[in-house]
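[recover] target loaded
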């Protein structure tokens, strides 16, 4: 079979991949030729998805034809999800896809480092310590050396300026540090051994709308101003319109509406010099030779490229092929570097478009099992009226002539060592266990890439020149849509909970569901538990007769006599090989469906957690797992809507928990809130979780005055180890049924809490806890409890939505106390 590769190329063609039924847009082909004739390269650097200036990327890529990319140091893993309850690694996968979608619109390329977004950080020192500064800097240097930017543009400043977020400022710091050492072969010499070459950009500029604004900590340096307005030469759209569409792809951050807020017309931007040579002329690429003349022997390339652009025939793309082949022949003689190699791939894409040559590799099934040789249909089509030959085996085994208007359709099974080595489909940066601040990527060639894509490479020949065409493995759905193919294990496994909470010394049943990918699948399933935990039985044998069939098995897990924690892993052995993959599908309307197949494991927590409330109503917000956590404590959960918030319909419930950001997300809460408070007056208990100050859909958050307006960065505690003081140590919320101590605040993850109330009725609300980040004083409002009539109303900004899925025992104990108030 043709060679199989699993890496996305660093080159991102501006021409879209076409099916056999589609024709390339001559305007897009011509624009790609103009871009080929331009060797300028700009790298934009930020910290997160949505940090990027899409107006700048659009202008540089579509307007100026530069190789343009956005480097997001993180994948946004630690952010908040406006569309669902997928957080952490799953949110990082979604935001990666949002960035890929954005770049398809604005014409840029996308890179990442291995840094993990661990949540809001108030200073770059904390950020760089948490990330492992040297490793993330190595990744930035690697991307400089791979992409070879002439100019680097940061989205955020370096000290004494502030990016308003420790990650933001750290991204500017690392961009400048990488600038200083990426040209030094003694810096990260392992990259040089891999084949990367040192590279020195011309300058680093900070692009910000705030340059020149008065304020403390402002930077002082040469400022260049440049208009980045204009229209796309292919579509005629304003750059601002395209940029707004790009930005609107960040749906998990609530930015769908950005498409309606386009800035058109003139668009002056400011760029302050952070390092390197200042801009002496009128353009941020001042002093950079963006022509082929920068390469020895490149003058002839430039002349041929300019001639091809000037004489381009849009009505007959085939007529441009001879000139493209002549340019390609000259380019082949040029000494190569990363940019030249990139441009060769770009020119081959232009040649393929002018030939109208398409290759589709369509598998019969959307998924194939490890070790299978799936059947596929390969369709090779040609529009140009000339001879094109597909070369197999170096030209010795087969030379298949492709004729215009006569597609070559072949049926065969994919096979060979490359297929056998295909890993189970899963994001490459999540395959190995990383640390809290940085992902582990064992194959250095993948570092920086947005994702890993399996492609088949084939060789074609036209007029004596050979070139490569790569095709992605796809499956055609019943509706005719082409989607990526996934590699799956013979069985997938699912535990019945992400966290298994059990009392020390007690036993708890654990359910495992086994799903077969193929008919008549046989094997045995077992659980692996940490030392000190007991398990019965040792395994269950299974035989599942149908593809997609399921079988459920029960194990009993017994906790150690003392508090403990660990992980349980489900393992199935099929045909002598162990598999331990669960199946998670992320489906959001604005993104392609994402298949994740992480280890099938859950957190085991042996802890003493008492609870008095047994019947809990849960009013969902933007997404959290408080309902699942309370179910682990033995509670019955009833999911509520706004229509249920009346004393009559809430009768029989011990407590109601309101999900995170419900006051931001639910249109039915404002009108129903008085009914909920009436139920509290009659003896009910409500625990309301945090909301954001912007975008509130209700003007009342509690029975008494309570405001969350104010500076959000200050009204939060990002240090998850911050000391906690007890302001009302005798309050029942800290004593019944669990005695809450300082130990209950150990082991917290990411942060203590966010969006603390800035003002509250201190006569009616009792503040339970005090905590602060180093050197700061936050409001004592992380947990506020009001007695209202015969019931209790709790407003808490503690990050329960982070702690509960992480199995933090103290968070479970405190939540159990809050819902048990009055019982």
């Amino acid at each position: 079979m043709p060679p199989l590769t699993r890496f996305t190329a660093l080159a991102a063609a501006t021409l879209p991949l076409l099916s056999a039924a589609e024709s390339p847009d001559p305007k897009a082909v011509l624009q790609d030729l103009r871009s080929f004739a331009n060797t300028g390269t700009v790298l934009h650097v930020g910290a997160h998805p949505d940090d990027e200036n899409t107006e700048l990327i659009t202008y540089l890529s579509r307007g100026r034809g530069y190789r343009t990319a956005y480097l997001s140091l993180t994948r946004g893993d630690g952010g908040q999800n406006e569309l669902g309850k997928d957080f952490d690694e799953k949110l990082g996968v979604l935001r990666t896809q949002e960035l890929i979608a954005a770049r398809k619109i604005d014409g840029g390329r996308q890179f990442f480092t291995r840094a993990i977004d661990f949540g809001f950080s108030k200073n770059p020192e904390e950020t760089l310590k948490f990330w492992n500064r040297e490793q993330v800097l190595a990744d930035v240097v690697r991307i400089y050396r791979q992409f070879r930017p002439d100019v680097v543009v940061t989205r955020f400043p370096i000290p004494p300026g502030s990016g308003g977020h420790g990650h933001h400022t750290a991204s500017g710091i690392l961009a400048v540090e990488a600038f200083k050492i990426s040209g030094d072969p003694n810096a990260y010499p392992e990259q040089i051994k891999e084949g990367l070459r040192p590279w020195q950009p011309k300058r680093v500029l900070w692009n910000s709308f705030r340059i020149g604004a008065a304020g403390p900590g402002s930077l002082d340096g040469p400022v260049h101003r440049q208009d980045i307005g204009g229209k796309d030469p292919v579509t005629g759209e304003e750059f601002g319109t395209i940029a707004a569409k790009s930005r609107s792809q960040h749906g998990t951050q609530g930015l769908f509406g950005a498409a309606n807020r386009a800035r058109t017309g003139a668009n002056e931007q400011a760029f302050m010099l952070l390092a390197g040579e200042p801009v002496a002329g009128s353009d941020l690429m001042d002093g950079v030779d963006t022509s082929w003349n920068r390469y020895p022997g490149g003058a002839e390339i430039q002349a041929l490229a300019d001639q091809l652009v000037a004489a381009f025939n849009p009505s007959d793309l085939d007529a441009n092929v001879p000139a493209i082949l002549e340019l390609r022949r000259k380019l082949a003689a040029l000494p190569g570097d990363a940019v030249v190699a990139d441009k060769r791939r770009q020119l081959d894409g232009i040649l393929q478009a002018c030939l109208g040559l398409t290759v589709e590799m369509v598998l019969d099934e959307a998924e194939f099992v490890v070790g299978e040789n799936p059947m596929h249909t390969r369709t090779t089509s040609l529009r140009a009226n000339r001879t094109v030959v597909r070369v197999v085996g170096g030209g010795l085994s087969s030379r298949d002539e492709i004729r215009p208007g006569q597609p070559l359709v072949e049926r065969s099974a994919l096979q060979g060592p490359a297929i056998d080595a295909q890993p189970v489909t899963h994001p490459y940066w999540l395959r190995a266990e990383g640390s809290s601040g940085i992902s582990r990527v064992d194959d250095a060639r993948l570092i920086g890439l947005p994702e890993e894509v399996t492609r088949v490479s084939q060789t074609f020949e036209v007029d004596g020149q050979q070139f490569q065409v790569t095709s992605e493995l796809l499956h055609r759905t019943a509706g005719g849509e082409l989607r990526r193919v996934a590699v799956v294990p013979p069985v997938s496994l699912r535990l019945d909970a992400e966290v298994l909470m059990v009392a020390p010394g007690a036993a708890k049943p654990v359910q495992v569901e086994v799903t077969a990918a193929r008919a008549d699948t046989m094997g045995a399933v077992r659980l692996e538990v940490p030392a000190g935990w007991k398990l019965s039985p040792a395994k269950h044998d299974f035989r599942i007769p149908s593809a997609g069939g399921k079988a459920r098995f029960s194990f009993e897990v017994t906790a150690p006599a003392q508090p403990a924690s660990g992980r349980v892993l489900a393992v199935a052995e099929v045909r002598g090989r162990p598999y331990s993959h669960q199946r998670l599908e992320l489906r959001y309307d604005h993104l392609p469906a994402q298949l994740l197949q992480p280890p099938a494991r859950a957190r085991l927590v042996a802890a003493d957690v008492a609870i008095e409330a047994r019947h809990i109503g849960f009013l969902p917000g933007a997404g959290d797992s408080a309902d699942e956590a309370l179910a682990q404590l033995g509670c019955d959960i009833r999911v509520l809507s706004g229509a249920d918030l009346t004393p009559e319909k809430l009768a029989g419930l011990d407590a109601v928990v309101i999900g995170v950001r419900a006051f931001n997300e639910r249109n039915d809460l404002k009108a129903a809130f008085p009914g909920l408070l009436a139920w509290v007056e009659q003896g009910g208990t409500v625990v309301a979780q945090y909301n954001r100050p912007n975008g509130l859909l209700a003007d009342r958050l509690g029975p008494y005055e309570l405001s969350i307006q104010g500076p959000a960065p200050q009204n939060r505690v990002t240090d998850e180890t911050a000391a906690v003081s007890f302001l009302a140590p005798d309050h029942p919320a800290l004593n019944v049924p669990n005695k809450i101590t300082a130990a209950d605040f150990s082991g917290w993850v990411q942060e203590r809490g966010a969006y603390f109330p800035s003002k509250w009725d201190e006569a009616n609300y009792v503040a339970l806890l005090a905590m602060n980040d180093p050197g700061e004083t936050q409001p004592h409002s992380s947990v506020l409890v009001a007695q209202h009539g015969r019931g209790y109303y709790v407003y808490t900004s503690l990050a329960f939505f982070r702690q509960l899925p992480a199995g933090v025992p103290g968070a479970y104990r405190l939540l159990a106390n809050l819902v048990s108030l009055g019982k």
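[recover] notes: Residues 9-14 have pLDDT under 50 and may be disordered.
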